[in-house]
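notes to self, project folder thing:

trying the whole complex as one job this time. last attempt i did each chain seperately and stitching them together was a nightmare. two parts in total, labels are on each line so i dont mix them up again. if this works i'll redo the older ones the same way
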Amino acid sequence: MAKIELKNLSKTYNKKIEALHDINFTIEDGQFFVLLGPSGAGKTTTLRCIAGLEKIDNGSILFNDESVTEDQPASRDVCFVFQQYSLYPHYSVYENLAFPLRSPMRKLPEEEIKTKVESIASMLKISNKLNNKATQLSGGEMQRVAIGRALVREPNLYLMDEPLSSLDAKLRESLRVELKNIQTNLNSTILYVTHDQAEATTLADKIGVLKEGHLVQIGTPEEIYENPNSIYVSQRLGSPKINILPGKLFGMDDVPTFGIRPENITIGTGNYSAKIISIENLGSETVVALNFKDQEILVSIQGNYKSSINETINFDMNNEKVLRFDQKGNRIYER
Amino acid sequence: MDTSRSYLEPSSFSKKLAATIIIVYTVITLIPISWMVMTSFKNVNSAISYPPEVFFEPSLEGYVNLFTNRSRQSQEYLDSLPPPENWYEELVRSREMVITGPSKFLGRYSNSMIIGFGSTFASVFLGALAAYAFSRFRVPLKDDLLFFILSTRMFPPIAVAVPIFIMYRKLGLGDTHLGMIILYTVVNLSLAVWLLKGFMDEIPKEYEEAAMIDGYSRLQAFFKVVLPQAMTGIAATAIFCMIFSWNEYAFAVLLTQFNAQTAPPFIPTIIGEGGLDWPAIGAGTTLFLLPVMIFTIILRKHLLRGITFGAVRK
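result (full assembly):
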């Protein structure tokens, strides 16, 4: 495993479309780093640049303080788990897992390959599928094999591009837990791309938020959640979504916009009154949508909430949790 | 109303109609071929008898005549010879002839094999490399280059026969195996590039990227990951290339004589040697048909999927 450093990384496609702009970050050895952002933000491009699949225009990529900027993908010794199409369809599961070990870069003896493949297969619970063709597997099994093909090696870095996004919700959750366990046990360095906030918060040691090719904030999941530096970042995490409201409505004339998370609003008492638009019972929590001066406000309440639509109700906000933003959507820190 | 089938399925009448048309078409196509095979097993007399014989006593005379050169001898001379050593000598002597040596057929046939398979391999191999490059890399003037490659097929190849003839004479490529392989490869290459590019486009580039990250160079990834998945296209392309170079007649007549002559220009020469030897011609054409037939049957499984390329992909 290695420490990964990106310095002033820039990438432009076709000399016109700027995909990445001056990206700087460091992934410490053994860290689980998650890149977060909507599609088109440059997450995948970052991964592809680190893997060497894309040539970068500017900047450098360092593995353990050594530049690999000019190296071929094969010699960078990284693993890449793709979103899809990840298995070689003409090989069996065993051959798929053995493929990286047979490469001219490694050329392990057949005995060792066998041991490694079998131990990974049992770890991922696919031992009984080793002789199947890759195309005969279910989606979850395929993705396990794809992750397994990455884990048979001990590379400098694992790159994972939304590896769980093509799976159904239940499987995604169980693989997510498995992945975190594996990472903790092997102490591996992982750069993980997702737009699923649950994956980001549960897996990450550090999160980097990308916006249109710019890295706008880096921090722990808590920092990104509690202390976002812009409206954009605040909207990346949290479900139900953060309420972004004009300051004027609440008598904050010096604040153009502010954000408040649904769990920081209380219902029942308070200075403001609003009409209930909808009530969504999610089991452990209830999401209530309010209409306050034609603005929709989402409120999250622990447990069940009994009320009826169109009822008028009072609410209050936890002022300490209000995030203030300026005209451009950047955070206003001082009061 | 018949409700036992889905609306998308053809009615049983249209299925029967389709089956009938296919059977009629198959019979029509197969009649000349089966007649040719039958002729190859007739003797010279029954081959030209009128009305034509459908049931006849099979004979290998045609095949013996195809593979041997013979000369007619007087009965006295034949009587003076020692008794025939094997069945084919006996057969020839019963026609008052002796075998003077093997014919050129075997040599022409193996020329056809070498040139046919050689040029097919070269077309598919070079075509696959070019198609891969066109499919994956940013080639300058890609569309123009592809059109240029296609344009080489817009005229009948024989239209450039004279320049090629002169070129080959100057280069010493006339009547050589290499020359014919190059020529057929050049003609087939445009088809190969275009067909294979379609197949390469269908293969997600993630596969070779994954292989490259797994420690392989691009070329190794091409052979290990891309080629096996392009098998469908390769099989289809190989069959088309093989059929062309195997059947090609005009250039073979023009450019080959002794050394590298293929079977197509040779078979008609049988007609000239002592009357119309239809069984020998039938034998020659039957044997000539076999390799392409076997080749196609071997690759048939891939071909069927290949023809529907783009429609369904696993």
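what i see at first glance: Chain A has a mean pLDDT of 89.
need to look closer tmrw
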